[in-house]
Design a protein that fits this description.
This protein has 126 residues and is α+β, with helices and mostly antiparallel strands. Helix content is 18%, strand content 35%.
Length: 126
């Protein structure tokens, strides 16, 4: 199981990459996709959607369950990974790469400081 050290994490199993341009890229962790199993559908809120930290920004449907996706920060969706519409299995195959979900324009950059480090996330899933 992979937990890249250069990312931030949430207790709800989202990963966050700071793009250093006022946006972050968000997806679900390798642990989360493994727990869900084969992902068959990803539904994301559209570009332009504003939300607060911990609001739901979409769902992931696996063969046996549906799981909500929670916003790690306040912001606005500025891009969604449209490839997931036709290839939801990208989340299983490459959760930290081609399986990313949304890009969010941050409202409050300081919220990134409150997210978990790789080491802290590893303790959560231990």
């Amino acid at each position: 199981m992979s937990i890249p050290a250069d990312l931030k994490y949430t207790r709800e199993h989202e990963w966050i990459k700071d793009n250093a341009d006022g946006t972050v890229t968000v997806g679900i962790t390798d642990f989360a996709q493994g727990e869900l199993g084969d992902i068959v559908f990803v539904e994301l809120e559209p570009e332009g959607t504003d939300f607060s930290q911990d609001d739901t920004f979409g769902t992931v449907e696996a063969v046996k369950t549906v799981s909500d996706l929670y916003a790690p920060v306040d912001g606005e969706i500025v891009e969604i990974n449209e490839a997931l519409e036709d290839e939801p299995e990208l989340v299983n195959d490459d959760p930290y790469g081609e399986g990313w979900m949304v890009k969010i324009k941050l409202s409050e950059a300081s919220q990134l400081e409150d997210l978990l480090s790789a080491e802290e996330y590893e303790e959560v899933i231990a």
